[in-house]
Amino acid sequence: MISAPLKTTGCVSISLLVLLAALLYRRHSEEILKERLNQVLSGLLRAEKKVPAAPKRVALGFGGCEDVFVEAMDIFQRLNLTPPASPRHYDSVKNGQELAELLAFFFQHGAAAERYVANKTLFEEIVKSAESSPKHRWHLGGNAPAMVLRLAKEGLDVMLSARLTQDIVDRLPKEVKVVGQTLQKTDIHVLMEYEKDTVWGQYIAPRANRLIVHSDEVNPYLQSLEEFSENLNRFKPHLVVVGGLQMMDNFPFKKGERWARLQILQSTLKDLPLSTKVHFEMASFTDVDLLKEILETVIFYSDSLGMNEQELPNLVSLLETGNVTVIADSNPRVATVLDQMRTVYAYLRQTVETGGKRKLTRLHIHTLAFQAILTSKASSWKNTMSAAAKAALTAHRHVCGSDYIDLMKTKILMDESFSSSRDEKSRRINFIDERPVNCWEEDDYIICVAPGLVCTHVKQTGGGGDNISAAGLVLQL
Known about the structure:
By secondary structure, the protein is of the alpha/beta class.
Protein backbone atom coordinates (compact mmCIF):
# COMPACT_ATOMS: atom_id res chain seq x y z
CA MET A 1 0.00 0.00 0.00
CA ILE A 2 3.01 2.31 0.54
CA SER A 3 4.71 1.55 -2.84
CA ALA A 4 2.33 3.66 -5.01
CA PRO A 5 3.24 7.07 -3.54
CA LEU A 6 6.93 6.20 -3.73
CA LYS A 7 6.60 5.32 -7.41
CA THR A 8 4.78 8.59 -8.07
CA THR A 9 7.44 10.53 -6.22
CA GLY A 10 10.12 8.75 -8.22
CA CYS A 11 8.45 9.63 -11.56
CA VAL A 12 8.16 13.27 -10.55
CA SER A 13 11.84 13.33 -9.57
CA ILE A 14 12.89 11.83 -12.89
CA SER A 15 10.73 14.34 -14.80
CA LEU A 16 12.29 17.21 -12.87
CA LEU A 17 15.77 15.88 -13.61
CA VAL A 18 14.94 15.59 -17.33
CA LEU A 19 13.55 19.14 -17.36
CA LEU A 20 16.60 20.46 -15.50
CA ALA A 21 18.94 18.66 -17.91
CA ALA A 22 17.05 20.13 -20.88
CA LEU A 23 17.27 23.64 -19.43
CA LEU A 24 20.99 23.25 -18.72
CA TYR A 25 21.59 21.90 -22.24
CA ARG A 26 19.66 24.80 -23.76
CA ARG A 27 21.59 27.33 -21.69
CA HIS A 28 24.86 25.67 -22.67
CA SER A 29 23.87 25.71 -26.36
CA GLU A 30 22.91 29.38 -26.13
CA GLU A 31 26.25 30.20 -24.49
CA ILE A 32 28.12 28.33 -27.25
CA LEU A 33 26.12 30.17 -29.93
CA LYS A 34 26.70 33.54 -28.24
CA GLU A 35 30.43 32.85 -28.03
CA ARG A 36 30.51 31.84 -31.69
CA LEU A 37 28.67 35.02 -32.72
CA ASN A 38 31.07 37.09 -30.62
CA GLN A 39 34.09 35.49 -32.28
CA VAL A 40 32.66 35.98 -35.78
CA LEU A 41 31.75 39.61 -35.07
CA SER A 42 35.21 40.31 -33.62
CA GLY A 43 36.82 38.73 -36.68
CA LEU A 44 34.72 40.78 -39.10
CA LEU A 45 35.42 44.00 -37.21
CA ARG A 46 39.15 43.32 -37.26
CA ALA A 47 39.03 42.70 -41.01
CA GLU A 48 36.98 45.86 -41.61
CA LYS A 49 39.35 48.02 -39.57
CA LYS A 50 42.45 46.54 -41.19
CA VAL A 51 42.41 49.22 -43.90
CA PRO A 52 40.91 52.74 -43.81
CA ALA A 53 38.63 54.15 -46.47
CA ALA A 54 40.62 56.15 -49.03
CA PRO A 55 39.54 59.76 -49.76
CA LYS A 56 38.30 59.03 -53.29
CA ARG A 57 35.80 60.79 -55.57
CA VAL A 58 32.75 58.84 -56.77
CA ALA A 59 30.10 59.98 -59.27
CA LEU A 60 26.76 58.19 -59.13
CA GLY A 61 23.63 58.15 -61.31
CA PHE A 62 20.74 57.97 -61.83
CA GLY A 63 17.52 59.23 -60.46
CA GLY A 64 16.04 59.55 -57.03
CA CYS A 65 12.70 59.28 -55.32
CA GLU A 66 10.93 59.52 -52.01
CA ASP A 67 10.49 56.07 -50.49
CA VAL A 68 7.53 55.45 -48.23
CA PHE A 69 8.01 52.32 -46.12
CA VAL A 70 4.95 50.44 -44.89
CA GLU A 71 4.06 46.99 -43.61
CA ALA A 72 2.78 44.93 -46.53
CA MET A 73 -0.04 43.30 -44.59
CA ASP A 74 -1.23 46.65 -43.25
CA ILE A 75 -1.42 48.36 -46.63
CA PHE A 76 -3.14 45.38 -48.26
CA GLN A 77 -5.76 45.44 -45.52
CA ARG A 78 -6.29 49.17 -46.09
CA LEU A 79 -6.65 48.51 -49.82
CA ASN A 80 -9.14 45.69 -49.09
CA LEU A 81 -6.93 43.22 -50.98
CA THR A 82 -7.16 39.61 -49.79
CA PRO A 83 -4.82 36.67 -50.45
CA PRO A 84 -5.50 35.36 -53.97
CA ALA A 85 -6.34 31.72 -54.68
CA SER A 86 -3.13 31.39 -56.68
CA PRO A 87 -0.02 33.56 -57.15
CA ARG A 88 0.79 35.03 -60.55
CA HIS A 89 3.58 37.09 -62.03
CA TYR A 90 3.04 40.37 -63.89
CA ASP A 91 5.60 42.57 -65.59
CA SER A 92 3.56 45.63 -64.58
CA VAL A 93 0.43 46.17 -62.47
CA LYS A 94 -2.92 47.34 -63.85
CA ASN A 95 -5.36 46.67 -60.97
CA GLY A 96 -5.68 45.57 -57.36
CA GLN A 97 -6.16 41.89 -58.17
CA GLU A 98 -2.91 41.84 -60.13
CA LEU A 99 -1.15 43.55 -57.23
CA ALA A 100 -2.38 40.90 -54.79
CA GLU A 101 -1.38 38.04 -57.09
CA LEU A 102 2.01 39.64 -57.68
CA LEU A 103 2.73 40.02 -53.96
CA ALA A 104 1.72 36.39 -53.36
CA PHE A 105 4.07 35.29 -56.14
CA PHE A 106 7.15 36.86 -54.55
CA PHE A 107 5.96 36.63 -50.92
CA GLN A 108 5.87 32.82 -50.93
CA HIS A 109 9.52 32.77 -52.05
CA GLY A 110 10.67 35.61 -49.79
CA ALA A 111 12.02 37.32 -52.91
CA ALA A 112 12.48 41.04 -53.45
CA ALA A 113 10.85 42.64 -56.50
CA GLU A 114 10.14 46.05 -58.00
CA ARG A 115 7.33 46.67 -60.48
CA TYR A 116 5.80 49.56 -62.42
CA VAL A 117 2.13 50.38 -61.74
CA ALA A 118 0.57 51.36 -65.05
CA ASN A 119 -2.71 52.41 -63.40
CA LYS A 120 -2.09 55.95 -62.05
CA THR A 121 -5.34 55.98 -60.05
CA LEU A 122 -4.42 52.71 -58.35
CA PHE A 123 -0.96 54.03 -57.52
CA GLU A 124 -2.42 57.17 -55.92
CA GLU A 125 -4.64 54.90 -53.79
CA ILE A 126 -1.58 52.87 -52.76
CA VAL A 127 0.29 56.02 -51.72
CA LYS A 128 -2.70 57.39 -49.76
CA SER A 129 -3.13 54.02 -48.00
CA ALA A 130 0.57 54.00 -47.13
CA GLU A 131 0.37 57.53 -45.70
CA SER A 132 -2.64 56.53 -43.58
CA SER A 133 -0.69 53.73 -41.90
CA PRO A 134 0.49 54.83 -38.43
CA LYS A 135 3.87 53.10 -38.91
CA HIS A 136 4.74 54.52 -42.32
CA ARG A 137 7.99 56.47 -42.74
CA TRP A 138 9.60 58.49 -45.51
CA HIS A 139 13.21 58.33 -46.72
CA LEU A 140 15.22 59.51 -49.70
CA GLY A 141 15.25 56.57 -52.11
CA GLY A 142 16.69 55.31 -55.36
CA ASN A 143 19.82 53.24 -56.01
CA ALA A 144 22.17 56.16 -56.59
CA PRO A 145 20.97 58.31 -53.64
CA ALA A 146 21.12 55.33 -51.26
CA MET A 147 24.67 54.54 -52.35
CA VAL A 148 25.62 58.23 -52.20
CA LEU A 149 24.50 58.54 -48.58
CA ARG A 150 26.49 55.44 -47.61
CA LEU A 151 29.65 56.64 -49.41
CA ALA A 152 29.34 60.12 -47.90
CA LYS A 153 28.95 58.55 -44.46
CA GLU A 154 32.16 56.61 -45.08
CA GLY A 155 34.01 59.85 -45.85
CA LEU A 156 34.18 59.81 -49.66
CA ASP A 157 33.61 62.83 -51.92
CA VAL A 158 30.50 62.12 -54.00
CA MET A 159 28.53 63.58 -56.91
CA LEU A 160 24.91 62.55 -57.43
CA SER A 161 23.11 62.78 -60.75
CA ALA A 162 19.40 63.11 -59.95
CA ARG A 163 16.39 65.38 -60.27
CA LEU A 164 15.06 66.09 -56.78
CA THR A 165 13.06 68.79 -55.03
CA GLN A 166 15.09 71.63 -53.54
CA ASP A 167 13.95 70.61 -50.07
CA ILE A 168 15.54 67.18 -50.49
CA VAL A 169 18.74 68.66 -51.93
CA ASP A 170 19.02 71.01 -48.95
CA ARG A 171 18.78 68.05 -46.54
CA LEU A 172 21.62 66.09 -48.13
CA PRO A 173 25.06 65.99 -46.44
CA LYS A 174 27.36 68.84 -47.45
CA GLU A 175 29.75 66.29 -49.01
CA VAL A 176 27.18 65.50 -51.72
CA LYS A 177 27.32 67.51 -54.95
CA VAL A 178 24.01 67.22 -56.87
CA VAL A 179 23.81 67.74 -60.64
CA GLY A 180 20.39 67.90 -62.26
CA GLN A 181 17.64 70.51 -62.30
CA THR A 182 15.34 70.57 -59.28
CA LEU A 183 11.73 69.36 -59.45
CA GLN A 184 8.48 70.58 -57.95
CA LYS A 185 7.59 66.98 -57.04
CA THR A 186 9.81 63.90 -56.75
CA ASP A 187 8.77 60.43 -57.93
CA ILE A 188 7.42 58.23 -55.12
CA HIS A 189 8.15 54.55 -54.47
CA VAL A 190 6.12 52.45 -52.02
CA LEU A 191 8.10 49.74 -50.21
CA MET A 192 5.77 47.09 -48.82
CA GLU A 193 7.87 45.14 -46.33
CA TYR A 194 7.24 41.91 -44.45
CA GLU A 195 9.15 39.91 -41.86
CA LYS A 196 10.20 36.26 -41.87
CA ASP A 197 7.31 33.87 -41.08
CA THR A 198 4.67 36.53 -41.82
CA VAL A 199 1.40 34.74 -42.65
CA TRP A 200 -0.92 36.01 -45.39
CA GLY A 201 -3.77 33.59 -45.93
CA GLN A 202 -2.19 30.32 -47.09
CA TYR A 203 1.16 31.99 -47.77
CA ILE A 204 4.11 32.14 -45.34
CA ALA A 205 7.19 34.28 -46.00
CA PRO A 206 10.41 32.21 -45.70
CA ARG A 207 12.47 35.38 -45.09
CA ALA A 208 12.06 39.11 -44.61
CA ASN A 209 11.81 41.12 -47.83
CA ARG A 210 9.72 43.65 -49.75
CA LEU A 211 7.73 44.39 -52.87
CA ILE A 212 8.39 47.86 -54.30
CA VAL A 213 5.89 49.55 -56.59
CA HIS A 214 6.21 52.85 -58.42
CA SER A 215 4.63 54.85 -61.19
CA ASP A 216 7.60 57.06 -62.07
CA GLU A 217 7.39 59.84 -64.62
CA VAL A 218 10.92 61.30 -64.36
CA ASN A 219 13.39 58.52 -63.51
CA PRO A 220 12.82 56.27 -66.55
CA TYR A 221 14.15 58.99 -68.85
CA LEU A 222 17.44 59.45 -66.94
CA GLN A 223 16.68 63.16 -67.11
CA SER A 224 19.89 64.26 -65.36
CA LEU A 225 22.13 62.29 -67.73
CA GLU A 226 23.30 65.29 -69.74
CA GLU A 227 24.27 67.27 -66.61
CA PHE A 228 26.05 64.17 -65.32
CA SER A 229 28.11 63.87 -68.50
CA GLU A 230 28.97 67.57 -68.50
CA ASN A 231 30.24 67.52 -64.89
CA LEU A 232 32.38 64.38 -65.05
CA ASN A 233 35.43 66.13 -66.48
CA ARG A 234 35.35 68.79 -63.75
CA PHE A 235 34.69 66.33 -60.91
CA LYS A 236 37.33 63.81 -62.13
CA PRO A 237 35.92 60.76 -60.30
CA HIS A 238 37.98 57.72 -59.43
CA LEU A 239 34.80 55.65 -59.80
CA VAL A 240 31.54 56.06 -61.72
CA VAL A 241 28.52 54.10 -60.44
CA VAL A 242 25.48 53.47 -62.66
CA GLY A 243 22.19 52.33 -61.14
CA GLY A 244 18.45 52.91 -61.28
CA LEU A 245 18.03 51.56 -64.83
CA GLN A 246 15.26 49.22 -63.63
CA MET A 247 13.00 52.28 -63.72
CA MET A 248 12.98 51.74 -67.49
CA ASP A 249 11.59 48.22 -67.06
CA ASN A 250 8.10 47.97 -68.65
CA PHE A 251 7.76 51.74 -68.81
CA PRO A 252 5.56 52.87 -71.76
CA PHE A 253 8.23 54.62 -73.83
CA LYS A 254 7.53 55.81 -77.34
CA LYS A 255 9.30 53.78 -79.99
CA GLY A 256 13.06 54.39 -79.88
CA GLU A 257 13.02 56.62 -76.77
CA ARG A 258 14.57 54.10 -74.39
CA TRP A 259 17.33 53.05 -76.78
CA ALA A 260 18.19 56.69 -77.47
CA ARG A 261 18.69 57.40 -73.76
CA LEU A 262 20.83 54.29 -73.27
CA GLN A 263 22.99 55.23 -76.25
CA ILE A 264 23.76 58.60 -74.62
CA LEU A 265 24.73 56.75 -71.43
CA GLN A 266 26.89 54.39 -73.49
CA SER A 267 28.64 57.37 -75.09
CA THR A 268 29.29 58.86 -71.63
CA LEU A 269 30.90 55.63 -70.42
CA LYS A 270 32.93 55.29 -73.63
CA ASP A 271 34.49 58.72 -73.08
CA LEU A 272 35.72 57.92 -69.57
CA PRO A 273 39.46 57.33 -69.18
CA LEU A 274 40.30 53.69 -68.42
CA SER A 275 41.81 54.84 -65.13
CA THR A 276 38.27 55.74 -63.98
CA LYS A 277 36.55 52.54 -62.86
CA VAL A 278 32.90 51.88 -63.69
CA HIS A 279 30.52 49.92 -61.45
CA PHE A 280 27.00 48.88 -62.53
CA GLU A 281 24.47 48.03 -59.83
CA MET A 282 22.00 45.46 -61.11
CA ALA A 283 18.34 45.27 -60.12
CA SER A 284 15.18 43.31 -60.87
CA PHE A 285 14.43 43.20 -64.62
CA THR A 286 11.69 41.32 -66.47
CA ASP A 287 11.91 42.97 -69.91
CA VAL A 288 14.46 40.82 -71.74
CA ASP A 289 14.88 43.39 -74.51
CA LEU A 290 15.77 46.08 -71.98
CA LEU A 291 18.31 43.84 -70.26
CA LYS A 292 19.89 43.00 -73.61
CA GLU A 293 20.17 46.72 -74.36
CA ILE A 294 21.77 47.32 -70.94
CA LEU A 295 24.23 44.51 -71.63
CA GLU A 296 25.26 46.23 -74.86
CA THR A 297 25.37 49.81 -73.56
CA VAL A 298 26.40 49.50 -69.89
CA ILE A 299 27.60 46.06 -68.76
CA PHE A 300 30.17 45.76 -71.55
CA TYR A 301 31.55 49.14 -70.40
CA SER A 302 31.77 48.24 -66.69
CA ASP A 303 34.70 46.99 -64.63
CA SER A 304 32.53 45.92 -61.71
CA LEU A 305 29.03 44.53 -61.14
CA GLY A 306 26.96 44.31 -57.94
CA MET A 307 23.76 42.29 -57.44
CA ASN A 308 21.80 40.00 -55.13
CA GLU A 309 20.94 36.29 -55.23
CA GLN A 310 17.87 36.95 -57.42
CA GLU A 311 19.60 39.16 -59.98
CA LEU A 312 22.65 36.91 -60.45
CA PRO A 313 20.75 33.94 -61.98
CA ASN A 314 18.80 36.44 -64.08
CA LEU A 315 22.04 37.71 -65.63
CA VAL A 316 23.38 34.15 -66.02
CA SER A 317 20.21 33.18 -67.87
CA LEU A 318 20.53 36.17 -70.18
CA LEU A 319 24.16 35.35 -71.00
CA GLU A 320 23.55 31.63 -71.51
CA THR A 321 20.09 31.50 -73.10
CA GLY A 322 19.11 35.07 -74.05
CA ASN A 323 16.19 34.93 -71.62
CA VAL A 324 15.51 36.18 -68.08
CA THR A 325 14.37 34.35 -64.94
CA VAL A 326 11.45 35.69 -62.95
CA ILE A 327 12.23 33.98 -59.62
CA ALA A 328 15.21 32.22 -58.04
CA ASP A 329 16.18 30.61 -54.74
CA SER A 330 16.12 33.27 -52.02
CA ASN A 331 18.58 31.29 -49.88
CA PRO A 332 21.02 29.72 -52.35
CA ARG A 333 23.99 27.55 -51.40
CA VAL A 334 27.42 29.17 -51.48
CA ALA A 335 28.57 26.67 -54.11
CA THR A 336 25.67 27.58 -56.41
CA VAL A 337 26.39 31.31 -56.19
CA LEU A 338 30.13 30.82 -56.75
CA ASP A 339 29.51 28.73 -59.88
CA GLN A 340 27.16 31.40 -61.24
CA MET A 341 29.77 34.06 -60.50
CA ARG A 342 32.37 32.07 -62.42
CA THR A 343 29.97 31.86 -65.37
CA VAL A 344 29.42 35.64 -65.47
CA TYR A 345 33.12 36.37 -65.00
CA ALA A 346 34.22 33.95 -67.74
CA TYR A 347 31.66 35.33 -70.21
CA LEU A 348 32.46 39.01 -69.62
CA ARG A 349 36.22 38.41 -69.59
CA GLN A 350 35.86 37.57 -73.28
CA THR A 351 34.91 41.19 -74.02
CA VAL A 352 37.22 42.71 -76.61
CA GLU A 353 38.50 45.97 -75.16
CA THR A 354 37.86 48.28 -78.08
CA GLY A 355 35.80 51.47 -78.31
CA GLY A 356 35.73 51.91 -74.55
CA LYS A 357 34.57 48.37 -73.72
CA ARG A 358 36.07 46.79 -70.60
CA LYS A 359 36.70 43.29 -69.31
CA LEU A 360 34.98 42.54 -66.00
CA THR A 361 37.45 42.62 -63.11
CA ARG A 362 35.13 42.65 -60.07
CA LEU A 363 31.87 40.95 -59.10
CA HIS A 364 30.09 41.40 -55.75
CA ILE A 365 27.12 39.21 -54.81
CA HIS A 366 25.21 40.02 -51.63
CA THR A 367 22.86 37.43 -50.12
CA LEU A 368 21.13 37.10 -46.77
CA ALA A 369 23.56 34.42 -45.57
CA PHE A 370 26.87 35.64 -47.00
CA GLN A 371 28.83 38.13 -49.11
CA ALA A 372 30.97 36.95 -52.04
CA ILE A 373 33.43 39.19 -53.90
CA LEU A 374 35.49 38.07 -56.90
CA THR A 375 38.34 40.26 -58.18
CA SER A 376 40.83 39.77 -60.98
CA LYS A 377 44.40 39.34 -59.69
CA ALA A 378 45.71 41.62 -62.43
CA SER A 379 43.30 44.46 -61.52
CA SER A 380 43.87 47.38 -59.18
CA TRP A 381 40.94 46.44 -56.90
CA LYS A 382 42.36 46.24 -53.36
CA ASN A 383 41.52 44.75 -49.97
CA THR A 384 38.97 42.17 -51.12
CA MET A 385 38.94 40.41 -47.74
CA SER A 386 38.28 43.61 -45.79
CA ALA A 387 35.67 44.71 -48.33
CA ALA A 388 33.73 41.45 -47.90
CA ALA A 389 33.80 41.89 -44.12
CA LYS A 390 32.63 45.51 -44.35
CA ALA A 391 29.79 44.51 -46.68
CA ALA A 392 28.63 41.84 -44.22
CA LEU A 393 28.69 44.26 -41.29
CA THR A 394 26.93 46.98 -43.28
CA ALA A 395 24.12 44.58 -44.18
CA HIS A 396 23.35 44.06 -40.48
CA ARG A 397 23.74 47.74 -39.60
CA HIS A 398 21.34 48.83 -42.34
CA VAL A 399 18.64 46.21 -41.77
CA CYS A 400 18.72 46.61 -37.97
CA GLY A 401 18.93 50.41 -38.31
CA SER A 402 21.89 50.77 -35.94
CA ASP A 403 25.66 51.12 -36.26
CA TYR A 404 25.98 49.04 -33.09
CA ILE A 405 25.70 45.30 -33.69
CA ASP A 406 23.70 43.64 -30.92
CA LEU A 407 24.41 39.90 -30.74
CA MET A 408 20.96 39.39 -29.21
CA LYS A 409 19.54 40.52 -32.56
CA THR A 410 21.87 38.41 -34.67
CA LYS A 411 22.10 34.94 -36.17
CA ILE A 412 24.35 33.14 -38.66
CA LEU A 413 22.93 31.02 -41.47
CA MET A 414 26.21 29.64 -42.85
CA ASP A 415 27.23 26.08 -41.96
CA GLU A 416 30.58 25.11 -40.44
CA SER A 417 31.91 24.43 -43.95
CA PHE A 418 30.84 24.92 -47.56
CA SER A 419 31.72 23.54 -51.00
CA SER A 420 33.61 25.84 -53.32
CA SER A 421 31.58 24.50 -56.30
CA ARG A 422 28.75 22.13 -57.16
CA ASP A 423 31.35 19.99 -58.93
CA GLU A 424 31.72 16.67 -57.09
CA LYS A 425 35.52 17.11 -57.04
CA SER A 426 35.35 20.55 -55.42
CA ARG A 427 36.96 21.09 -52.04
CA ARG A 428 35.17 21.92 -48.83
CA ILE A 429 36.20 25.11 -47.10
CA ASN A 430 36.00 25.22 -43.32
CA PHE A 431 34.36 28.16 -41.60
CA ILE A 432 36.67 29.44 -38.84
CA ASP A 433 34.90 31.68 -36.33
CA GLU A 434 37.99 33.68 -35.37
CA ARG A 435 38.88 34.32 -39.04
CA PRO A 436 35.42 34.33 -40.65
CA VAL A 437 36.34 35.66 -44.12
CA ASN A 438 37.62 32.88 -46.40
CA CYS A 439 39.73 33.94 -49.40
CA TRP A 440 41.42 31.79 -52.03
CA GLU A 441 42.86 32.03 -55.53
CA GLU A 442 41.57 30.36 -58.69
CA ASP A 443 42.87 30.85 -62.22
CA ASP A 444 43.33 34.64 -62.63
CA TYR A 445 41.06 35.79 -59.80
CA ILE A 446 40.58 35.86 -56.03
CA ILE A 447 37.32 34.96 -54.24
CA CYS A 448 36.43 36.07 -50.71
CA VAL A 449 33.34 34.84 -48.83
CA ALA A 450 32.17 36.48 -45.59
CA PRO A 451 29.31 35.23 -43.40
CA GLY A 452 26.28 37.43 -42.93
CA LEU A 453 25.33 38.52 -39.43
CA VAL A 454 21.61 38.28 -40.09
CA CYS A 455 19.52 40.89 -38.27
CA THR A 456 16.58 39.22 -36.49
CA HIS A 457 14.87 42.52 -35.58
CA VAL A 458 14.29 43.97 -39.04
CA LYS A 459 13.85 47.73 -39.28
CA GLN A 460 14.05 47.92 -43.09
CA THR A 461 15.11 45.81 -46.06
CA GLY A 462 14.70 48.47 -48.75
CA GLY A 463 18.00 50.02 -49.80
CA GLY A 464 19.93 47.15 -48.26
CA GLY A 465 21.64 46.05 -51.45
CA ASP A 466 22.67 49.60 -52.32
CA ASN A 467 24.24 50.17 -48.90
CA ILE A 468 26.01 46.81 -49.02
CA SER A 469 27.42 47.33 -52.51
CA ALA A 470 28.57 50.84 -51.66
CA ALA A 471 30.29 49.63 -48.50
CA GLY A 472 32.07 46.90 -50.44
CA LEU A 473 33.42 49.47 -52.92
CA VAL A 474 34.68 51.85 -50.19
CA LEU A 475 37.72 49.76 -49.27
CA GLN A 476 38.57 48.57 -52.77
CA LEU A 477 39.33 51.88 -54.52
